[in-house]
């Protein structure tokens, strides 16, 4: 469970955010809104890359307001490319499982299978600069998904992916979330993705929540929302 208790965060000089909400276990939540509304900043507050000025951030009833990112039960795909440029694709993805490169047979098999599934195995020894933008996005997404964490945060996860990979990842994420029953929070402008993979939508405008409800109600009132 994620709980924001009267969280206030000021950023970019004149921009500020105020949040008070709860996300329960097994919820699949879409964060929707215009560019610059605070969607990515919200994910950074949950993951620990940003800290609020006031208020509390609770995860599973424990206070994680100022906990470092690597100490939170969170796997986070940033919108910007977050691969290490000096490491190969295999090494980058290995870090999703462990902080070391010496993996056991089970871990190696897991990486092998997912690289094969998403057509990256032949590029496993390449550096990020040696593959396309879509392949880098694919590798970043794989590294995020391969982590065994209770909370999955995805910021525009399917950007730069072709239709085939987009659809394959969408189905894969939906499947693993059904198995793990963990929390998924996804920032997306794609309404089709939102309706296929989430069951709740939070709309943010100017750092505030202006809608929080189920997908069906969101679809009905979308044209009346001003953001």
Features of the shown structure:
six-stranded mixed beta sheet, 7 helices, alpha/beta, 227 residues
Question: Short description, anyone?
Answer:
It is built from 7 helices and 10 strands.
N- to C-terminal separation? 28 Å
CATH class descriptor: Alpha Beta
Derived from helix and strand composition plus strand pairing, the structural class reads alpha/beta
The SSE string, one letter per element, is: EEEHEEEHHHEHEHEEH
CATH homolog superfamily: P-loop containing nucleotide triphosphate hydrolases
CATH fold-level topology? Rossmann fold
Number of separate strands = 10
What does the radius of gyration come to? 18 Å
What is the strand content?
25-35%
The main β sheet shows up as:
6 strands, mixed
Q: What coarse outline follows from CA principal-axis ratios? A: globular
Strand order of the largest sheet: 6-7-8-3-9-10
Q: How many domain units?
A: 1
Uncertain spans, ≥5 residues at pLDDT below 50? none
Number of helices: 7
Instruction: Work out the helicity level.
Output: 25-40%
Average pLDDT level = 92
CATH architecture grouping = 3-Layer(aba) Sandwich
Could you characterize the architecture of this molecule?
The protein is α/β, with parallel strands linked by helices. The protein has one domain: Rossmann fold (3-Layer(aba) Sandwich). 33% of the residues lie in helices and 26% in strands. It contains 7 helices and 10 strands. It has helices at 39-47, 89-97, 105-117, 133-145, 163-180, 191-197, 215-221; strands spanning 2-11, 15-23, 28-32, 54-59, 62-63, 74-77, 151-155, 183-187, 200-205, 208-213. The strands form 2 sheets. A 6-stranded mixed sheet has the order 6-7-8-3-9-10, sandwiched between helices. The protein has a 4-stranded antiparallel sheet with strand order 2-1-4-5, with no helix packed on it. It starts with a strand and ends in a 6-residue tail after the last helix. The mean pLDDT is 92.
